[in-house]
Amino acid sequence: MAAKRTFCSNRLPQPKGPYSQAVTHNGLLYISGQVPVDPETGLLIRGTIEEEAGAVLNNIKMIVEEAGARMEDVLKVTCYLADMDDFQRFNDVYKEYFSHEPPARTTLQAGKLPMDVQVELDAIVALPVKS
Length: 131
What we know:
Radius of gyration: 14 Å
Helix content: 10-25%
Number of domains: 1
Largest sheet: 6 strands, mixed
Distance between the termini: 17 Å
CATH superfamily: RutC-like
CATH architecture: 2-Layer Sandwich
Strand order of the largest sheet: 1-2-3-6-4-5
C-alpha cells in the first residue's frame, strides 16, 4: 500500500494552520479547503461571490495542475457557501471550470466560514498513473 504524502503548491501561500494543503494517497489527491487567497500577495480577496469563487477555483486549478492532473480529473468537490442565496451566482462561475462531465459535488451553507469569506472548496482528484 502506498504511503500518504503531503503536497503543497509552490505557487500558493503555505497553510497557516496545522494542516496540509493537500495529501496524496493511492493515486488520489485530497485538497484541503481553499479560500479566496491571492497567490501573488497571500492576502484574502474580498469581493462579490463571483470574484471569491473564481479565486478559489483558480487556486484549486493551480494545485491540481502542479500535482500533474487536470481539472477533468477532479472527482468530487465540496462547496461551502456563507449564504445559499448565492447558489446560482456561484454555479455560474463553477460551470466555467467544470462544463463537461463535472465532478460529483456537495454544496452546503456554512454557519460561518474562516475569516468571513463567502466560499470555501475542497476537492478529491484522480492523479495520472505514472508509467
